Predict the structure.
Amino acid sequence: MSLKKAIRVWQRHFTLYRKIFKSSLVLNFVDPILYLAALGLGLGFFIKDINGIPYLRFIAPGIIASSAMFATVYECTYGTYVRMHYQKTFDAILSAPINIYELITGEILWGATKSAFYGLSIIIVISFFGLVDSILIVLLIPILFISGVIFAQLSLIAVALVPAIDSFNYFYTLFITPMFLFSGIFFPLEGFPPIVSSIAFLTPLYHIVNISRALAFGELTIWEDLIWLLVVCLILTPVSYKLMKRRVMT
Amino acid sequence: MVVVFGKGLVKDYSNFRAVDNINFEINKGECYGFLGPNGAGKTTVMRMIYCFTLPTKGELKVFGMDVYKDARLIKAKVGVMPQDDNLDIDLTVIENLIVYGRYFDIPKKVSKTKAIKLLEFVGLVDKADISIQKLSGGMRRRLLLARALINDPELLILDEPTVGLDPHSRHILWDSLKVLKSKGVTIIVTTHYMEEAEEICDYVAFMESGRIIIVDKPLNLTKRFGGNLEKVFMKLTEKH
Ligand SMILES: Nc1ncnc2c1ncn2[C@@H]1O[C@H](COP(=O)(O)OP(=O)(O)O)[C@@H](O)[C@H]1O
Ligand SMILES: [Mg+2]
């Protein structure tokens, strides 16, 4: 496994993205701003505050985390599947001196890059509206890269297992959407039976939301969540590589 | 000098044998054709030679190197024109070449100069900066050939290079291949167009159901069986 060769794959995706990025960048902001406007302002009118925090400020850090997640997950489910199955980009890459592990690493690094990049762009917008208290939020960028690696690996596992592209519906409906709703972005989980927070604890989004919120308020109480992310990253690595290798090579 | 050497080569997909114990030897500067009907196993043989898939069993050496161990070194010296068009549809013609060159660690400056030369060679230089979605089928095939040449390969593998092309485009591609051959590039080609094999191949191996049933020079075959290669093919596949 050569990192340089993995970066060659990353560069290919970067070259393509640079061409469409101007037209897609504005679109990136639409979703997060809609959530902030509809829920933050709309629902916030009735809720006022959660644990003493104004509602809009409560959800803003979570929206950074979820936007980054969605960027990675779209890239590494639909994007990867199209490259692998329809455009045969993988065949082209694997005919050059790049092996399957380097190819998978390139996909993951690219997915993680999108997480960090989308996170950064949403942070800029949200700070512009004055919704972030602390400069510590910049620490979130590298951490979003780590959570991006996790979401990329989870997506690749989905790619390796789905029989066809429309099967991603199951991945989104049964996994991504519930995770998005119950990760503590919109409400604290304390109101639910303990089983809900136990399940949330097992999902990566919950931890990156915790980290994002802590940093946004200038607190460094992120270590437990960060360790959780690192451990899960390590656990997922052999699984995602093995399943993807099987999917691509046979 | 032997460039590709296969002995007792087998490839199984789950419980299906796609390539069944074949032997062949391809020498430097030759154009060697694998012929046979769809499903005969031609693409599978190509994919083993360019180290895309490993053989299940048998010996396979390319430039004297072992495909089981030296895939990266082999790939660096091989150019591949795949059966399925896998150009990057979001990139321009020249970007396709530069991005591909990067996989071989060719610096951008070098690959740019190279890309222009290759586009001249395949007659696409005036199309360098347009989106490949605007290319005709024949032009896309020529671009695939140019891309396969970006690393100055000593061995060129072409899997059904002219499938679906009109006769004119087909002749343009054949002419390019003849030029490459005259420069000493070894060429392996699969096809089910007998006319194509007669035109460019020094040797042809007929495959059927994963086996090579005969190998010879096209001329010898037509002499031995009478008629053109098309007739030879019909006779050979009838017997089995
Ligand atoms: N990845 C694969 N998995 C299972 N079977 C395959 C795979 N690739 C090819 N085959 C089968 O192997 C046989 C040979 O295929 P191929 O090498 O593509 O033949 P050709 O190129 O001569 O048309 C065919 O029956 C094909 O269905
Ligand atoms: Mg084929």
Summary: The interface with chain A takes residues 13-14, 50, 52-53, 71-73, 75-76, 80, 82, 84-91, 95, 99-100, 102-105, 151 of chain B (CB under 8 Å).
